[in-house]
Amino acid sequence: MNLPGVVVHRDADVLAKAVAARLITRLVDRQSAAGTASVVLTGGGVGHATLAEVAATPARDAVDWRKLDVWWGDERFVPTGHADRNETGARAALLDHVDLDPERVHVMRGPDSGLSAEAAADAYAEELRRAARPEDHGPVPSFDVLLLGMGPDGHVASLFPELPALYDERPVVAVHGSPKPPPTRISLTLSAIRAAREVWVIAAGEAKAKAARLALSGAGPMQVPAAGARGGRTLFLLDRAAAAKIPPDLGRFAVVA
Predict the structure, then answer these.
(1) CA 152 to CA 242: how far, in whole Å?
(2) CA–CA gap between residue 84 and residue 78 (Å, rounded)
(3) pLDDT digits over 154-210, tens only?
(4) Contact in structure between 190 and 228 (CB atoms under 8 Å)
(5) Does an H or E element contain 51, and which?
(6) Residue 29 to residue 220: CA distance in whole angstroms
(7) pTM over 0.90
(8) Less Cβ around it within 10 Å: N or C end of the chain?
């Protein structure tokens, strides 16, 4: 895997707009080449702000939304429609405003499905397995773009430092004892994340600066999970505050006004 690229924007608002433009371009390019595209969504403030920016720009019409597969990197194990669900935020920000094929929107099930968190994780892993093609060479599709937020502790998806999920080789796991509420979640593992063609780690704010530096400086993924979030191509898309502690030699570094 290649050295991650680092792209720095002025502030969180500009970052969300820039990631939205980059995402639209990538999806259009992929659909032009392959006829379809896939994206893995993340939650959090910047993640949902990015989706809202996609919804707000007329350029969104360049995407053939009916030919897009939408997945999630993680989900809070709470009922459908709950405000804490990443799905709920994504639908409000973007998904309810574009003409998606419902069969291609792949949600992680909540407790209202009657499944335990473990069974819901297994069901998602099976859905991924069915979507994978022989050329993917594994149990998950080669996602075109996989978006990840990053916490101040360096967590990505619902993979928190030192939790057992980081050692799990299955593509999807139930996470218990999350240090952030709610305590029970479902998450892709690092092995599934690494199947993506492109992984974009998106972070804004001074609180993320130490984690960004560690994630790019050779820290172990058990201590800093973002250090293990790598795809065929990996980008850290940051605002100036989040990038403040990164020495330029730690990645292919570009500062955008």
Answers:
(1) 10
(2) 7
(3) 999 999 999 999 999 999 999 999 999 999 999 999 999 999 999 999 999 999 999
(4) yes
(5) helix 44-56
(6) 34
(7) yes
(8) C
